[in-house]
Amino acid sequence: MTDTSSQYVGDYKPEGPLPSWPVGNSNGTIEESDYGKRLDYRLVDAGRSLDKTVAKISSQAQGQQFRALKDSIAQIKRNTNPYTKVDDVITLEKKVRQFAKSVDA
Asked: Which of 102, 80, 78, 82 is nearest to 90 (CA)?
């Protein structure tokens, strides 16, 4: 993180390592608990992708967007119901990709 980007982002906690990806059953199905773990994996992956953008953040607006996305990740992680969590994960992944493209531009 550069001094400039740190002034816009402030203190934040980077994502930890990726959890393991749960493998499905031999018949191709997965258990509900494993589905939730897959969503958690995707959340951590999105967070790690977001962390890679920190050094490129060059404005207060980008810093605010970054913090809002990090807050969204934390909020979604607290949801333990995979059926209500899935849409939030998909939306977040799209927003992180859009944000990463915007700071690369």
From this structure: 82
